Amino acid sequence: MLDQAQKLRQLASDNTAKKGKPRIITVTSGKGGVGKSNIVVNLSIALQKSGKRVLIFDADVGMGNDDVLMGFLPKYNVFDIIFNSKTIEEVVVQGPYGLGLLPAGSGLNRIEDISTKQREEFIKKLSSLENLDYILMDTGAGISRTVLGFIACCEELIMLTTPEPTSLTDAYSLLKAVNHFKLKSRARVIINRAFDEKEALITYNKFNNAVNNFLKMELEYLGMVSEDRRIVQSVRAQQPFIMAYPNCDASRDIERLAQRISGIEGSTEGIGVQGLFKKIFSIFS
């Protein structure tokens, strides 16, 4: 499926890291409609509210809606920095508590048009974003070269699924591709829309057994987010549910997830935002 599988593997295993760089976490799912972007937005807000410095990179090319979930309409995206001389400050949208959002737009097909000089200038501009604790990349859903490319770029992978059989099957298929191309050997799992912790654990154990038996990947249960009608209400109002309904079940679940992520030591010393985009340029050009 990927004609650049070797390049992906090399970049995924690149450990030329430097200390003090943000942890780069890709959040993905096997299918659309499972609430991935909503989880990314609210989890990022929870981390930012706890004192962390967070940037969301909306990497759902062409279909990104993290801005909509926060009630924003960005004028620019990352490619305006490269092609239209916009600054980082003009493009990054400031969200709740100082959370940053960097929209990707639909310009990945233009990467080959970027000159070496433009790439170097863009990478230099990104130095202003290095003072971060986390970069959460919100990918598109499903199996594609783009999604697998962003998984190869990240340092940590979070798979989001729901208890629905179709969601589990598609999540398994995506991990099968990740395993096939040797992009990652482990992933953390969030079960969304679970009725309770019992259902979430049953779902995770079923999923984990299949992955361990057939893919030999290491999974870790990160937590769950409850099925909660407040989530639907907040999406319609274009307000993150952790802010609109801070005491609802889903918000409390998100707070617990943020605490667990904060308590996990980074698996690497960090490649930083400049290293991230160097990888992106290498993969998609």
Task: Give a structural overview.
It is a single chain. The chain contains 13 helices and 8 strands. By secondary structure, the protein is α/β, with parallel strands linked by helices. The protein has one domain (5-12, 23-284): Rossmann fold (3-Layer(aba) Sandwich), CATH 3.40.50.300. An 8-stranded mixed β-sheet has the order 3-4-2-5-1-6-7-8, with helices on both faces. α9 links the parallel β7 and β8 (218-226). α1 (5-12) packs parallel to α7 (145-153), α2 (36-49) packs across α12 and α7 packs antiparallel against α13 (272-284). The chain is globular. The two termini are 17 Å apart.
**Widest beta sheet: strand line-up:** 3-4-2-5-1-6-7-8
SSE string, helix = H, strand = E?
Answer: HEHEHHHEEHEHEHEHEHHHH
The major β-sheet equals:
8 strands, mixed
CATH topology: Rossmann fold
CATH architect. name: 3-Layer(aba) Sandwich
User: Superfamily at the CATH H level?
Assistant: P-loop containing nucleotide triphosphate hydrolases
Instruction: Provide the number of structural domains.
Output: 1
- The helix count comes to 13
Cα shape: globular
β-sheet strand percentage: 15-25%
Q: What is the helical fraction, as a range of percent? A: 40-55%
In CATH's first tier, which class applies? Alpha Beta
Average pLDDT metric: 90
Enumerate the spans where pLDDT stays under 50 for 5 or more consecutive residues: 15-19
Number of strands: 8
